[in-house]
Specification:
Blueprint (H helix, E strand, L loop, with lengths): L11 E5 L5 H12 L15 E2 L5 H9 L3 E8 L2 E11 L2 E9 L8 H17 L3 E7 L3 H9 L3 E8 L9 E2 L5 E8 L2
Parallel strand pairs: 5-6
Antiparallel strand pairs: 1-3, 2-8, 3-4, 4-5, 6-9, 7-9
Length: 183
């Protein structure tokens, strides 16, 4: 996973996404998870899901939500990563996390997660960060566990039949809740 040369973080810019970013963000998210381009990185879901990962409306909904922020990460003027933060009472939800496949494994994900956790803690007073991960993604779950997240065993069904979330290639998909204290 962490095999690429380390990236410098001095040249990263973190900001809230705007409407003007929608197309670039959809492309980034799709490239990190679906299709042949996603196979350049290690976060691909191409073997378990086909179809789309998100669409312009899904990205706009996060940007426009009064309780959400779509954190955009730029390097040399290009969007290279993003993640969704959503305020949910005493915890924050972390989702829509994508790093350009060409930059995966260089430490960028760790930096983005640390910034997202800092924002949730400082801006909203969140005591925990929650996320859901497809339970068969053992490599991805292990990566999150190394960052302090713990598996809860709480599962929710995958939305089979709703192609907005992709076209499943297997019948055992479900989401597991992962939690990290932000103390």
């Amino acid at each position: 996973m962490d095999t690429a040369p380390r990236l410098g973080t001095d040249d990263l810019t973190f900001r809230a996404a705007t409407d003007a970013d929608v197309d670039a963000l959809v492309s980034l998210i799709e490239s990190a998870y679906r299709g042949d381009s996603s196979r350049a990185g290690w976060t691909t879901e191409a073997d378990i899901l086909q179809g789309q990962r998100t669409d312009p409306q899904g990205v706009i909904d996060v940007i426009k939500s009064p309780v959400s922020k779509l954190l955009t990460v730029e390097r040399e003027g290009q969007i290279v990563a993003c993640c969704q933060l959503e305020q949910r009472g005493e915890h924050a939800y972390f989702g829509m996390f994508a790093v350009s496949p060409a930059l995966q494994g260089a430490g960028l994900g760790k930096v983005i997660m640390a910034e997202a956790e800092r924002i949730a803690r400082q801006a909203w007073g969140a005591k925990e960060m929650h996320m859901t991960v497809i339970s068969v993604r053992e490599d991805l779950i292990a990566w999150y566990e190394r960052r302090g997240y713990r598996r809860t065993g709480k599962m929710t069904p995958f939305p089979y039949g709703d192609e907005r979330f992709g076209i499943p290639q297997r019948d055992d998909l479900q989401f597991e809740l992962l939690v990290k204290p932000l103390g």
